[in-house]
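in:
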């Protein structure tokens, strides 16, 4: 999770007209729309004027996002804030206004409005979107640290612990290296493996336990 650094309201701020959009599929850390027929270029150009964002057409999205290219799953244009900002749809904007109205009524004495302070869903290469993977037990080598771990690789770790054959179409990815944290031959079936995923903000606290047979995998990508 990261702090919300700013809010962009493309409909309210006149960057985008409701009449030019068929559907607004996603909003928040990721904003996605399907323009009406013949208006894709206009909508793309208008959204490109938003401050501090990157705008993609569906076929331009980075492969590492693994987003579906099917039209019914994802709109034609996707907007990503370059920092931890949020892009708000018309529906969310209306909900926020209603929430603020009732907060003003019921919190009139405190004169304090509750707003969203944090969120998930930004680019997973950002440090604030990453976590720390920590594990120990008979399935893991001691005092091993590797640079990164993709979330999908946890599937192989689970298969290894349970002694199951993974799906042949799945890749071992970041754990298939010379510094693999996994023990090749597990002798003890009765010891318990300990696995924890912590946020990157807990790095200093967890580092205190280095040298106790714990595997550290920093910058796990989610």
């Amino acid at each position: 999770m990261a702090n919300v650094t700013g809010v962009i309201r493309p409909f309210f701020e006149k960057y985008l007209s409701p009449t030019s959009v068929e559907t607004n599929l996603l909003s928040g850390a990721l904003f996605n729309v399907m323009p009406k027929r013949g208006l894709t270029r206009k909508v793309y150009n208008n959204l490109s004027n938003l401050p501090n964002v990157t705008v993609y057409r569906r076929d331009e999205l980075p492969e590492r996002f693994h987003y579906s290219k099917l039209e019914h799953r994802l709109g034609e244009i996707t907007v990503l804030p370059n920092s931890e900002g949020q892009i708000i749809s018309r529906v969310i904007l209306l909900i926020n206004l209603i929430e603020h109205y009732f907060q003003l009524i019921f919190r009139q004495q405190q004169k304090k409005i509750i707003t969203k302070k944090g969120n998930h869903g930004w680019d997973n290469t950002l440090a604030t979107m990453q976590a720390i993977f920590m594990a120990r037990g008979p399935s893991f080598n001691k005092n091993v640290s590797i640079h990164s771990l993709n979330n999908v690789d946890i599937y192989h770790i689970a298969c290894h612990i349970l002694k199951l054959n993974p799906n042949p179409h799945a890749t071992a990815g970041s754990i298939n290296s010379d510094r693999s944290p996994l023990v090749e031959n597990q002798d003890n079936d009765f010891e318990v493996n300990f696995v924890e995923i912590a946020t990157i903000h807990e790095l200093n606290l967890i580092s205190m336990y280095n040298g106790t047979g714990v595997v550290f995998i920093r910058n796990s990508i989610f």
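note: The chain has four helices and twelve strands.
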